[in-house]
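Study this protein:
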Amino acid sequence: MSDFVLYGYFRSSAAFRARIALNLKGIKPELRFVHLLKDGGQQHTAEYKALNPLELIPALVHDDHTITQSLAIIEYLDEIHPEPPLLPKDACGRARARSLAYAIACDIHPVNNLRVGRFIKSTFKTDDEVVFAWQRHWIEIGFNALETMLARDKETGAFCHGDAPTIADICLIPQIANARRVDLDIARWPTLARIEAHALAHPAFDAALPKNQPDAE
């Protein structure tokens, strides 16, 4: 049995990030599934709330410590298993990789996640297409900026920063998957599309795809 336990859901982009990081580090956690829709959302059960009062996934348990928030999980894994590194070696490179990752994880993703969509739908008595339009709007704004940031910077390589995956790619690929779910054509952002194609050829990213998870529906 693994000494790592990952609580997640196949379609969650934050859990997707954690899976990529674990795969890149060669760590095979015990997987425990928290279905975000069944039973009113299993993340709201008393058992899971005791583990993570935020009622969000993922959560990683290791050595009797629970780590929440995907970015904290990624950096924790990088500290305890330094190879291969998920952050560049130099301070400027680390800042750049983090700025790209945070643009996704802090600015694009939070306004588009499940609980925001549900609030919009229930509060404003609207339908799924209005929620999708909301999500497309914020993803488009974010992707336009990311495309500019990546396309103009000589530090962009096969991946977001150089030719090895970093925390930036770990955040980007799940967000592109979210964009596809709301019918955005990723070809509009050629640099993002190129990085995605390169990343998905990497076994760590491919194995983390939602469709490849045991709880996939």
Residues 4-84 form a domain with the Glutaredoxin fold (CATH 3.40.30.10). The chain has nine helices and four strands.
